[in-house]
Write a structure and sequence with these properties.
Structural class: mainly alpha
Low-confidence stretches: 1-15
Number of strands: 10
Shape: globular
Radius of gyration: 24 Å
Mean pLDDT: 90
């Protein structure tokens, strides 16, 4: 009887919820999920400190130790990705200084190990690389960009197969580029293919964490295909720009039954008929369909 009583006490202690994991919501106790605990932890981190990403990653692995629970783990990785985006915006000034040339670090992860890190940049590169970033250069300025190899190494063992496909596609696009100096930097065929890929993938994964992320990617690319960018606008001198005329022709041939083409069909027809004001008037409605 003594042994049974002792075992019962241990069991009760193990099942007891830590009071720090409880919040009062609408007058009722709410036990935080793993994702909510990770969000709480990240809120206390300094997003201007690049080293905070490795802390967030370690916390993720502490909370999401069950690699079989991939749907829950997808939520955690989604939170990490959002934090990476935040750090990439706020940590730049603390990582890079105006007096140092970091050009030798650009693309160093993708050259098959042929380039070496200069000794004077070893410490800064270690901080960048070990926290999920690589160095990007645009308009003579250096910035942080997500490193797909870090995501693969740290999170692939935890996530669903669909989330892995999502990260692989992001990594592919990361390596190929997308925009430079507020201008589209990929061929029109690649732009159209990406829009359709994200359309199909977001449909196939709808009502999931990765589906929500995929929809955001689709919306971003669809917006670019519709109106362009500051330095690559769809309409130039009150007529359709050559890049977009080629893109729309390719879209019609490549995916005529796609939702993307159906949404843009009337807009394209107006542009091609040089009814520019009427085409512009359609844009808010087209984008609001997202």
């Amino acid at each position: 009887m003594l042994v049974l009583f002792f075992a019962s006490c241990v069991s009760n202690n193990e099942n007891k919820t830590d009071s720090s994991d409880i919040r009062i919501v609408d007058g009722k106790e709410h036990v935080l999920t793993k994702a909510e605990k990770l969000e709480d932890y990240i809120l206390a981190l300094d997003s201007s400190d690049v080293n905070s990403v490795s802390k967030a990653t370690a916390k993720f692995k502490e909370l999401f130790e069950d690699k079989e629970d991939t749907l829950m783990n997808d939520q955690g990785v989604s939170i990490i990705l959002d934090y990476l985006d935040k750090v990439s915006l706020y940590a730049n000034r603390n990582v890079f200084d105006d007096k140092t040339n970091y050009e030798s670090l650009v693309g160093i992860e993708f050259d098959g190990g042929k380039k070496s890190v200069p000794s004077e940049l070893e410490s800064v590169y270690k901080a960048i690389n070990s926290n999920g970033f690589r160095v990007r250069q645009s308009e003579g300025m250096f910035s942080l960009q997500q490193n797909p190899f870090y995501l693969q190494e740290q999170f692939y063992p935890y996530i669903s197969s669909n989330f892995e496909i999502y990260l692989q596609q992001l990594g592919k696009e990361n390596m190929e580029g997308y925009a430079e100096d507020a201008a589209i930097a990929i061929p029109y065929q690649s732009l159209v293919q990406r829009v359709i890929w994200w359309e199909d993938f977001s449909k196939a994964t709808q009502n999931t964490v990765v589906g929500q992320e995929a929809k955001e990617q689709y919306n971003r690319y669809f917006t670019t295909l519709t109106i362009g960018m500051d330095n690559t606008p769809a309409i130039e001198s009150e007529q359709i720009a050559a890049y977009f005329q080629d893109a729309y022709n390719y879209l019609e041939d490549f995916a005529p039954q796609s939702q993307t083409y159906q949404r843009l069909k009337n807009y394209i027809a107006l542009l091609e008929s040089e009814k520019i004001d009427s085409a512009k008037a359609l844009v808010p409605g087209i984008l609001n369909e997202q």
